[in-house]
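Supplementary Methods S3. Input chains for the assembly prediction are listed below.
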Amino acid sequence: MHMNYKHLIVFLFTILLFNCKEEKMNLVRIEGKKININDSIELNQEIDDFVKPYREHVNKDLDSVISYAVDTYSKSDGDFNTAIGNLFADAVLEQSNIIFNKRTGENLDMTLLNHGGIRSIISKGNITTRTAFEIMPFENSLVAVAMKGQTIQDSLVRYLSRAKRAHPIAGLKIKLDKDFKAIEATINNKPIDPNKTYYVVTNDYLYHGGDGMSFFQTNDSLYDLNYKVRNALLDHFKKVDTINPVRDDRFIKLN
Amino acid sequence: MKRREFLQQSTAATALVTLGGLSLPSFTTGSRETKITILHTNDVHSHIDAFGPNDGRNPNQGGVARRATLIQNIRNENPNTLLLDAGDIFQGTPYFNYYGGELEFKLMSKLKYDAATVGNHDFDNGIDGLLAQLPHAKFDFLSANYDFSNTVLDTFVKPYKVFKKDGIKIGVFGLGIKLDGLVDKKMYKETKYLDPVEIATDMSRILKDEEKCDLVICLSHLGYHYRNAPNKISDLNLAKATKNIDLIIGGHTHTFLPKPTVAQNMEGKNVLVNQVGCFGINLGKIDFYFDSDKNKSAKGTSIIV
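Predicted structure tokens for the full assembly:
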């Protein structure tokens, strides 16, 4: 009996061995398709239950109220500057300067961000953590760049005069004539000194030339603030009870 | 004792010869068939929950709990299934911001993903951030053209892996996109990007000739095709410039292909290139049918897409 059993194993093994050796498998047909995942497919309850505590925690945190907006603000409310863009640029300047000043003893002079980087409106009413995630869903960080006044005048201001977009700025003021030529540009309300070094805060995407902003990288002094753009917004919202930003004269065009 | 062992062995040997000799004809007449199913996702970008009913673009689509059901149904029908992801697992919903990718990896492990490649956004918390989450991933990360040897990821990412399903050997290798200019250097650190065509040439040779794989799959995050930069390396260009690859599963460009593309490789042979958009809205499914019947294979491989 014992022997027979062993024989059987040997026998099966032999079949397997010959089977593999003799039989070459050839690819005869390929079928490919895309399957849409939608509500016609039932939820896997075990997976859904696993996600649940994570979902509840994230939602509870995202929905916590951190400030209040007196109105609804959109990046399309203005040709050269908008209330939401001004809020964004001012908040970044103020929050980043806390870190920059502590580290270098110097102060930031201006902010330049990009219009496309405002990813959502701020709706009238409660501002929650989710609001900051909607405005800034990306993980970009803030950087400070030391730039000569000459470079700012020649490239940064020139870029803005040609862009014809409400890129968020703070600290810098620009007046364009009817032909989009910059006839006045100031930093901290003083004419730009070509020989002075200014500290400009922007995000790492723009620093690397995003949105055609090729002028940052020619400058060798870069300060990585290790501070996410979204966190600057969150910290600002947490600091103020109410936001009430306005469109102002920081970037205008004369008719 | 000795004698008994000897007897046993000799009997076994006899059995082997006789049975082998006798059985051969019967094996060649009855042909064997098998099917290998490849399931794939790309650019899921932390989309764990389905889009809500009011979403402007993709209402009620996606969601990992539904994907789990679909995958389980397919596995029940064919256990010889591989589940792959072409990168950019991270970034896109607050789940990533709050948990750093832990939940994404845990869920992919529960869904029994077999392998994934590294996308550019998988560096969003730096190479250290990716390493920190790897203990939650019970599947392999494959990348052949990222040289991680001078980074913390060294030994954690393999160039390729060979899977065996029902006697069929399936070789899968990974390819990543050029990081310079796309990802901040402080995030990817000393990761070296190697030429995708050269590496794919090496990989397909190793998998086909040395590992004797029946199927060679490239898991790519190069992007499907760049209309404004047609010479930039992409999945379609990779297909043309290589041989011995059966399927390129792509990502990065969030391309919603209505069906897999049948491209031609450098030898004029067919290569399937597929990509299923993004955010876990779709699942790609490619079935490879194998047959031992020489008459069937003589007709070549038919592709139904």
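Chain A is about 40% helix and 25% strand. The two ends of chain A are 106 Å apart (CA to CA).
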